[in-house]
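call fold(seq) -> tokens
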Amino acid sequence: DRTLTYQELHDHASQVAWWLRNHDAQPGQLVAIIMDKSWEQIVAAYGVLLSGAAYLPIDPNTPTERLTTLLQRSQTKLILTQTHHTTHLPNLPHTTHLTLDTPLPNTNTPHPTQTPNDLAYTLFTSGSTGEPKGAMLAHRGLINALEATIQEFNINPTDKILGLTALHHDMSLFDTFGILGAGGTLILPDPDKTRDATHWHHLINTHHITRWNSVPAMMEMLLQHTQPNSIPTLKTAFLGGDWIPLTLHPHLTTAAPNAELVSVGGPTETTLWNIWHRVTTINPNWTSIPYGRPIPNTTYHILNQRLEPCPTWVTGEMYVSGIGLTHGYWNDPQRTTNAFTTHPHTKETLYRTGDLGRWHPNGTIEFIGRADHQIKIRGMRIELGDIETHLTHHPHINTAI
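ret:
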């Protein structure tokens, strides 16, 4: 029900940025975005970056107690929201908000103040201790991932993507900055139908969507509402954040014969994704889709407990290095110290993912599972994900845990 040109996006974002500057927004400071999926949400993200600050996306349906905790932990003083969410905002001292669904002040575009190493955004995720932890990502790493994706998959101004991923999920960065950064078009669903696969299918065919980006479960939902050759315009389906069922590829090929399935991955601590695998065929010997190869300027290490490289086919823990690494956890030096280490030989900073993997002879990585999801039976280590995979081979079982 609303179309924005690039000029309109720029103008609205500049108005937001000017308001933020006038309220002392600075590089390294977090500005909360608490909104439904909408054009205002995109304006807010660009407005924060134009102001020089970094954005903190928060699900508007977050319970008040947790919302209060996130705002206090992040030391957020400025909030961008919509009118109908203002009654849900906690009454915290020295906090002010701007509603983007009301007229914004006219102004000029503020001059850039941040550097490539300054923060672009921070995502708070669940922590094992019960306290949320905020991964801080800089502009340099985000640009690297976006540019690599645009070049690898020829993202261009003719492309259109359906923006289904929530802003507080790192995969949304491709919708918000990747497609628009390449000159393409972002189509947003009705906020009340973000989980309605029939609505998605209608938008895909109405707007001739060419790229898809989501967790695998959402693509599975879409495919349940499609007929053979019913999505002819789709060229790429980026799927990540969870296991991709081996049965998904043939179903996608049937519904979208021109689409390529791309498995994308990487922890929240390393930008939107930093490893991918282009799925052309399904090997009958596979138990899962390969994790893939790291993107440019990113290195994956598979190491044993002594931080020694594991040979091909030998399972070890995955560590990541490169310019996409988080700057650590917001105001949490102890967690930062626990999660990062130094490679004993190269001296580069490594992030310990907690994921298990192994190298294949062709240079791709196979994802095995989480290091903390193992059990021992009579001294033998058992990865529960392996059992789950075999259970799902049964024709009457869709998902196992």
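The longest helix spans residues 6-22.
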